[in-house]
Amino acid sequence: MSTLAHRKIRCTVVAQFPLALRRRMQPTTLATMRAIPSTRKQAQSKEVIPGVAVRQDGTRFPIDTTPLVVGRHERTNIVLKDPEASASHVQLTATALGIEIEDMDSANGTLLTTDMLGERIDWTKAQRVERIWVKHPVRLRCGNSELKIFPEADFTNRDSDPEPSGEEDFPLLTGKSPPMRALFRNLRSFAPTELSILITGPTGVGKERVARAIHALSARRRGPFVTVDCGALPATLADSELFGHVRGGFTGATEDRASPFELAKGGTIFLDEIGELPLDLQPKLLRAIETREIKRVGSNQYIKIDVRIVAATHRDLIREINDEASFRSDLYYRTAEFTVHVPSLRDRIEDLPLLLSSLAEEEKARIAGGPTKEAEDVAENIVKRISPESMDRLMRHDWQGNIRELRSVVLTGLVLWPRGPLPLEQRLSDPLGKMASSNPPPEPLKDVEKNYWRRMAIYYNGKVSHIAAQAGVDRRTAKKKLIEFGAFDWSDLLDED
Ligand SMILES: Nc1ncnc2c1ncn2[C@@H]1O[C@H](COP(=O)(O)OP(=O)(O)OP(=O)(O)O)[C@@H](O)[C@H]1O
């Protein structure tokens, strides 16, 4: 369902009462707003997804297109006998995007979790919502009271694509551990919506992959996926990198440049490292997201945008909003209508063997230019080639660099030990690990380096760009090393540039 359609619904039902005004209204007034003529109500409800709210005492309240106010005041539609709840705390409305849950500036906020079964929820880890649309069951906390929301929607039936075969078999992502299963469940629920999603998690956990998975599971999957690295926007050109420019818009702008928002038309824009976005650009981005239009630098013309926003950060943005004022709260809530957290590798260490296989398979397939039988064999065998002692050491490593670090260990390992035992623990960065290893003392450093470059040359078939990318050096340095260690003649090197 497009944002436009969603907006239409809000216009007819709610928008006559701007949010600021509604927040000042008394519960009595809000309850009266439910008196919408039935014909109009029916017309609206054709497209919308209704639902049911269930109070803690088991009372059920149907949710339709007229806002249902939840609060402590006796004139609200769902009365909470709870001194910690605000007089009018939160509002529930059926819309085409799912049930809209909108906090009404409550004193203690509205918290949301998708955990419907847990007896004891750790509400400190739940998401605080200002406004969100849900199509799958969620549980809310208002003050000390809980409320379960059951939208009558089932995307899995709406989607013509076949269902993934199991939670562990998720597009682009690998894992069977409880935190990954929880992540998959959330993605399955929220990816098909138009909600903006903020992906959090430490560096190297695969946040970009999660963003691609969200895109792949959304109705926009046939549209483009455009990444903007907000951490790499050059200070003087950040504005133009984000919103584009017209020829002559500033000195040096010799031709028009489209904004990534325009390039992502019909698809998803991924704002990576959004926490690094310069403070002065934050209001502009907020405006673009809210109004769904942008203006290129040097132009007076507004251009409509049609994108779904997915953002990622390794920072604790809530803390930065509160303590450092380096991130605007309004932008946060606009980009984080739903938040998913990608666990560190340490927190899902049981996925390590699966990840080893998947990384090996992907790499082999990449070199071969597509999935091959050989890639599958490599993946299957990699775990068999790792001794129980090595595996134990890998499982105990702290993996500060997460999957990125694991990937590098696996790929260099496959180069160094193309067959036979695979003592991957020798590639770990912390020396304690090496001391704990039962393997013979390491080779002299120069020999290690020499063997490394020679094996890289063989493994990557002389493709300098692959070797350089894998080694984390530029092509010139890679070439120099390959020659220094006699790995190749110049003539043998495949010069791809
Ligand atoms: N489930 C996975 N299976 C295989 N490879 C993965 C998986 N998750 C991540 N990777 C690989 O790990 C590396 C890091 O992933 P990615 O760039 O998505 O992480 P990130 O969390 O966005 O990192 P950063 O915060 O530093 O930008 C990439 O090479 C990616 O392909």
UniProtKB/TrEMBL annotation:
Transmembrane parts of this sequence: none
Which residues fall in a coiled-coil region? none
Q: Which Pfam families match?
A: AAA_lid_14, Sigma54_activat, Yop-YscD_cpl
- Every copy of the Sigma-54 factor interaction domain together lies at 173-415
What InterPro entries does the annotation carry? Answer: AAA+_ATPase, AAA_lid_NorR, FHA_dom, P-loop_NTPase, Sigma_54_int, SMAD_FHA_dom_sf, YscD_cytoplasmic_dom
Q: Which UniProt keywords apply?
A: ATP-binding, DNA-binding, Nucleotide-binding
Does the entry feature the keyword Nucleotide-binding, yes or no? Answer: yes
Domain of life, per the record?
Answer: Bacteria
Q: Is Acetylation there in the keyword field? A: no
Disordered: where is this region? Answer: 153-173
Q: Where is the FHA domain?
A: 68-117
This chain's protein is named Sigma 54-interacting transcriptional regulator
